[in-house]
From TrEMBL:
Highest taxon in the source lineage: Bacteria
GO molecular function, one term: DNA binding
Annotated ranges, domain HTH lysR-type: 1-58
Phylogenetic classification of the source organism: Bacteria, Pseudomonadati, Pseudomonadota, Betaproteobacteria, Burkholderiales
Protein name listed in UniProt: DNA-binding transcriptional LysR family regulator
Signal peptide (residue range): none
Family according to the record: Belongs to the LysR transcriptional regulatory family.
InterPro entries the record matches: LysR_HTH_N, LysR_subst-bd, WH-like_DNA-bd_sf, WH_DNA-bd_sf
The entry's keywords: DNA-binding, Transcription, Transcription regulation
The UniProt record lists the keyword DNA-binding: yes
Length: 290
């Protein structure tokens, strides 16, 4: 099993097409097919399910894909560390949607200006998922609000993780104009909460603030963006909880009700001992900003 075969496999898995993968890799189709067949023979399993019209990952292929990506990433990290960062390297960074919207643009612009040869790969997701991806090595670091199960140094140390505060966020409960008489979350009459998927720390805060679990009639509408959440609140269909920094950037209709929803720190999380130059450059930049 060599790195080039792993790269070919990951490309075919991304494209789910030998033709497109070959074009992307600059190889002939027969070569790509042969390398995949050799890898399958070496592993003793079929990585793809082949039909006359489509290609899809097998169950074994889905499991192997994560390992293949991590092995390729580890190779890049090793080269980056050994050269002292001369090659720029790759930094795989995760963040919450709110952080991507309100905090990261300035940080990443400054980082790129100082380290233009480093390739940044940024993905978003709920805090719990981001923590799991850093822990498993799928991400190098992540900006997130720590879930309750990992809210102290001892819990993080058990998972070989380290966290450092990056920003302090003021959370707001945003409600329709019809809720002007409400003074706290428990007085909200609208019984629909717009939130991200389970694992989002802000969703957990919102559910606790509103008493979703112990108040009859509540429904949670899972959405993929704050723009959609704000639009639904403006339509009178639901309430949501979001950082003040995000609300300040949004075009919010006048008349909507806002209530304090607490304060939360956003942390930069990484694996203990991870000291790749690309990451250290980011950490040093954040420390200088502070």
């Amino acid at each position: 099993m060599d790195l080039e075969s792993l790269n070919i496999f990951c490309t075919v898995a991304a494209e789910l097409s030998i033709t497109r993968a070959a074009n992307r890799l600059g190889r002939v189709q027969s070569n790509v097919t042969t390398r995949i067949q050799q890898l399958e023979a070496e592993l003793g399993v079929e990585l793809f399910v082949r039909t006359s019209k489509r290609l899809s990952l097998s169950t074994a292929g889905e499991r192997f894909l994560d390992y293949a990506k991590r092995m390729l990433a580890l190779d890049e990290e090793a080269r980056h560390v050994i050269t002292g960062g001369l090659d720029g390297g790759v930094l795989r960074m995760g963040c919450m949607e709110s952080t991507a919207a309100s905090r990261l643009p300035t940080v990443l612009a400054a980082y790129h200006a100082r380290h233009p040869t480093t390739r940044l790969e940024v993905s978003t997701g709920p805090s719990r998922l981001l923590l799991e991806q850093v822990h498993s090595g799928r991400l190098d670091c992540a900006f997130l609000a720590l879930p309750p199960a990992a809210s102290d140094e001892a819990s993080l140390a058990e998972m070989s993780l380290v966290a450092e505060k990056a920003w302090h966020e003021r959370l707001l409960l945003l409600a329709p104009a019809s809720e002007t008489s409400a003074h706290n979350g428990r007085e909200i009459r609208t019984r629909s909460l717009a939130a991200f998927a389970q694992g989002c720390s802000y969703r957990a805060i919102a559910e606790d603030l509103l008493g979703v679990s112990d108040t009859p009639g509540w429904q949670v509408q899972e959405m993929g963006s704050y723009h959609a959440m704000i639009a639904c609140v403006a339509a009178g269909a639901c309430v949501t909880v979001l950082p003040r920094s995000v609300l300040d950037l949004a075009k919010v209709p006048t008349g909507l009700k806002t209530l304090p929803a607490g304060q939360v720190d956003t942390y930069l999380l990484w694996r203990s001992g991870y000291d790749a130059p690309a990451f250290q450059n980011l950490l040093n930049q954040l420390k200088k900003r502070a």
